[in-house]
Amino acid sequence: MRDQSLPFLPPATAASANSGHRERLRDRARQSAFQGLPDYELLELFLFRSIPQRDVKPLAKALLAKFGSMGALLAAKEEDLRTVVATDQRGRLMRVGPEVALDLMALREIGLRVSGEAVMGRTVISSWTALLAYVRQRLAHEAREQFRVLYLDTKNQLIADELSNQGTVDQAPVYPREVIRRALELSAKAVILVHNHPSGDPSPSRADIDMTKQVVEAGKPLQIAVHDHLIVGREGVVSLRAKGLF
């Protein structure tokens, strides 16, 4: 016997209702060029293709409620994405499966590659604003601390962005000699150090300052400069060079 406590729509009616909602939302997106659409509706538009013939609004809202923002959602790991469940209009459970999780992670990777195009192969000084946007998008919502190194050529153009180490929620070990060794392998003449504070506060610690000075000293004999050390948090990006800390 059907559970009378759950809302019910005949299959054809349910499919028709979903189709009508999807077309109305698509029309609104086209007419407004996405302006005015809340985050959950933008996410709905993306999920339409991942989950056909289902009402995905509850899942879109559940994803944003779970992670708190679009940025945090797109930075989430697959195992965390797959913990999200919602209930549709017919009382059926909806889960983030492996395909949906992969689609969401692909969306983030597309965003990273687009933002990377604005800085890769360009003079860092002339694209500094784009560089700050790029590192913030990549690291601001990471749950664990990452230490990355941006390697620059003789013209101060970005030639590589590499993950040097990944650690816990508050520490990622850094080996200055490894940073300089890799710079030599890439024929880089300068580096920009970048890491995130998962706490959200990008204020530098004494350990951050000391480590920066160690990399500076390791690079001096080989004429490899450290242009800056950027610390990324949800509250912004801090430049140790701008603060005169090394």
Averaged pLDDT: 89
Q: Indicate how many domains the architecture comprises.
A: 2
Order of helices and strands: HHHHHEEHHEEHEHEE
- In whole angstroms, the N-to-C terminal distance is 73 Å
In DSSP terms, counting alpha (H) and pi (I) runs of 4 or more, how many helices?
9
Which second-level CATH architecture of the largest domain applies?
3-Layer(aba) Sandwich
CATH class of the largest domain: Alpha Beta
CATH topology title of the largest domain: Cytidine Deaminase, domain 2
**What order do the strands of the largest sheet run in, or round the barrel if closed?**
4-3-5-6-7
Low-pLDDT windows of residues: 1-12
Strand content: 15-25%
- Give the helix/strand class: alpha+beta
Tell me the number of strands. Answer: 7
Helix proportion: 40-55%
Largest sheet: 5 strands, mixed
At the fourth level of CATH, the homologous superfamily of the largest domain is Cytidine Deaminase, domain 2
3D architecture notes:
The protein has 246 residues and is an alpha+beta fold. The longest helix is centred in the first third of the chain and has 22 residues, at 11-32. Strand 6 (225-233) and strand 7 form a beta hairpin. The strands form 2 sheets. The protein has a 5-stranded mixed sheet, with helices on both faces. It has 2 domains: 11-110, no CATH class; 120-239, Cytidine Deaminase, domain 2 (3-Layer(aba) Sandwich). The chain has 9 helices and 7 strands; from the N terminus they run H-H-H-H-H-E-E-H-H-E-E-H-E-H-E-E. The model is unreliable at 1-12 (pLDDT under 50).
